[in-house]
Amino acid sequence: MTDTVAAATEVTSATDAQEPLLAISGLAIDYRTGRRRWNPAVRGVSLRVEPGEFVSLVGESGSGKTTLVQGALGLLPAAARIRGGSIAYSGVDVTGWNDKRMALVRGNYVGFIPQDPNTSLNPVKRIGVQVIEAVRLNRPKADYREAALESLRTAGLHDAERVFHQYPHELSGGMKQRALIAIALAGRPKIIVADEPTSALDVTVQKRILDHLVGLRAELGIGILLVTHDLGVALDRSDRILVMQRGEIVEEGPVARLSAVPTAEYTKRLLDAAPGRHTGRLAPPTAGDTPSVLTARALTKTYQLRGRQELRALDAADLVLRRGTTHAIVGESGAGKSTLAGILAGFTTADGGSVQVGGREVIGLRRKELREVRRDLQFVFQNPYTSLDPRFTVARLIAEPLHAFRVAGDRKDRVRELLAAVSLDEEFLHRLPFQLSGGQRQRVAIARALALNPEILVLDEAVSALDVSVQAQILRLLVDLQARLGLSYVFVTHDLGVVRLIADDVTVMKDGAVIETGPVERVFHSPGHDYTRQLLDSIPGVR
Amino acid sequence: MTVPLALPRPLSLRRLGDLVHQPILVLSWLIVLVVIGWAVAPGLFTEFSPYEGDTGASFAPPSAEHWFGTDRLGRDLFARSVYGAHTTLTATLLAVLLAFGVGVLVGLIAGFSGGLVDTAIMRLVDVFLAIPSLLLAMVVVSVLGYSTNNVALAVGISSIAAFARVMRSQVLAVVTQDYVKAAYGLGVGRLGVMGKHVVPNALSSVIALAALEVGTAVLAVASLGFLGYGAPPPEPEWGLLVAEGRDFVAVHPWASILPGIALAVVVIATHRISTSLRKEARR
Amino acid sequence: MPRYIALKLGRAVFVVWAAFTVAFVLLFVLPADPVDLLFDPAELNSVPPEVKEQMAANYGFNEPVIVQYLDRLGHALILDFGNSVQSGQPVLRAVVDVLPSTLVLAAAALVLAVLIAFGVALAATSTRRVWLRNLIEALPSGAVSVPVFLSGILMLQVFSFRLGWFPSFGDGGFRSLVLPLITLAIPVSGPIAQLLVRNFTTELHSGYVTTSWAKGSTRAGIVIRDVFRNASLPALTIAGITFGNLIAGSVITETVFARKGIGRLTQTAINTLDVPLVAGIVVLVAATFALINLIVDLIYPVLDPRLRATLAAGGSR
Hints:
Chain C: Keywords: Cell membrane, Membrane, Transmembrane, Transmembrane helix, Transport. The complex is a heterotrimer. By secondary structure, chain A is of the alpha/beta class.
């Protein structure tokens, strides 16, 4: 016990000195992969955060950035071990401290904002109780209730009194994340570590939360370490950026230098792939007056909620897709864009309105007739990890529509042809989905959608689940296929940066209704609606 | 990044090599295989007869000759256990096959059709779950008459509900998967989707349950045998063996305890196997 | 909310009614000649036809099935399940007579089982040695694998015959309760422990626990304040299954230890083909099961604010 008390005073007294708030040096972390087999996840990483500094750690999935943060907070899972290096808070080396001693550092000295606000609050406790816990553990002498309310207000929850008595499920995602920020602030930490704090949130909310973090740094003089996959987010707000790849820091530097003259090859690739940094299109836009292949008019869909409540998921939405072009539908969660895509593809039945594909009315078709339409219109799902049957080989997956429509001819040849079209080798034919990476899976899903030579592809957030560099490759593939096969795309996305890269037309949606529609150039340069402007402002990485 | 990336893996024997690191699992498979051997060809495992004994050597303690000792009539208890495997395991197999077949079919129909059909079937399943399965099996066997086959039937009927419920919940889980929606989108018909996607993916969990249910059914069959509802006395049956030795347990404990332990070991082995199958199914 | 209660209540009533119907079909309709079930099979051939006729009339077997059914259902509604064939006393009376004995055994076993289950789950959660953890996690499946009659006999052998600590049978006092209590508690604890171990592990790795670590909580604090409640709540959902295990276990336990109780009564009723008694027991057991599930359904929303919120919105789940 004396041990832990000493540790606490050690950390607190040391803060006055001019040591960095957090100094990690040569940290190496392994994951257990089998009996006495270890796989390095972090290889000798060094990192410093000075008082009042905003540092971002950028990396794609599997880069080891989350493991690094867990290591710094002493929150590594049981299957991981620290092989070497040290972690110091204000010059106090905490490497190898047990849970009891680390408990005095966490909350007190370093606050943590987790990734997913929806799972990070205890569902059966009121927000107030959860914030009070954080106060009680770190500031035993404070007036718990007052301190908790103050924390909630500082986190940007103006109606703190009400939130105090609410349960997590009664709050929106953004409010939950603010409650978590309040919990992180409750112990009056010197530094805040945020692990992808906004990746589960809408762009406009993301912008507000991140801006608030920047404000907190100025207001409270704390240091912030932001972990993100989004280089754009990091560029907009940090003082310094570290780029991480395969467990190593490949580049480090002030924002201005790093974005202007990146030295590492990987940083250049990331900068190139970040959609927000591009101003032009991947391919020249398609010329003006091309005939439409798909026309939707006044589509309406209402869901019956519990207790006679209704949700207008779609309110008189129109959409025109021109032949050989890409029409993007953008909006935040709940905008109705996925409902619209589902209706176009025949997965969801509309309450009213019409959809014409190639001059043929689709709404109200029976199952058999709808099947015929499927030849012309195919769908690509958001998550390639769930849209492929885990028991089917790649060959069987791609051949499935050929079998379903009893397509004549050599199906094996056709499958090889399709595989080549999405730039995959024949060696993939006999693999199962779990043996493929996310990008490879999405390629297979696209090949499958092309099997019947459709005219139209409806892509529902088809690149959102992928890392930026992979996302760039898939977008390139889609643009090439469009040029070669004359395809028309309905492209549903929440990412306006992507829209500018590939779309000809764009429809902005909010709360089930179309806010604005038109050519991308026009909408981006002179948006006709406040909401569109707000969305455009929220694109990370645009300067 | 924002989407939970589940990595489902199909059930496979590809990773047989991993077994080396799981000695208890290997042992469990060995035990089950040996006991199946007892059931199929008992003569290969013991030279003694399960029915005739040396009355002069009644209640001999376990020895090199009589591994489990002998009973009141001088019959070799190891031989009776070996031959008993046939009675008990046949009944178990029948019971599980019946429960699996009917349960899977009912669960599939309920899960895949939904609506009123689903509601009706599930309320019926509720009723069968409300009557403890041992009690239900006792009632069924009392109506049908005491015999091993009827015990099998009774145990089978009383476990249908469990299979139906698991199959239904699996079907419901699979039906909402994107790959099922994708199959419809590719123009595959309802029956095709059911046969190619829903059933194979739903079954892997049900097969793990079947392995678990083998253990439970062995226990149920033996319990009914112990209570005297199974095979008539000269017949060797595991539950009956324990019951026969019970009256002498104060003086000759092995007579009922050793066959009982053999039974417990088999059930533990099936549970271990079921756990590994369930883990496979979840991958 | 009222809709929810009505729905759950309706479901419970339906289960009891359906269990009655199942018992009626099994016991009164399926047997070719239900009268035969009233006699000992060995003496069946020596029974004169007039006597059978008389019995059939007594039990109403001469009436059309539907009349018999409605008649019995009507009586069952006022808890009249007829008279036991063996003892001649009313079925309800026969059950109520032995009920206290089983109730004491089952209640004590349930308490012990729950304690064991929580002990196992907490032990598995608090150890960080992988081999020890694996061992503890294997215990529940061992508990359900050992047949109740074997563990009962082993208990008798060791603690009664060898050590002489407890009496081997009988209903007298606390000391005679100890062995049956442990015998019954072990298999009942198995499924509860399995569920708890699983829940404790998932909850311990959930996002809000990370938040608590980051707040500066200690492991003990997290287990007590966060994990315990969230992991234990779902155990209520297997209350019905636990009840079934208690009933099935008490049939065997009471036989092994020669105790009177519902289990023994059931076994005797089945052995002597006491049809009204068997039917009565089945319906009463199903009714208790339905009642337990109803109570769980009604108190669950009180304990879980999320469910309470969906119900307050007027939903029916």
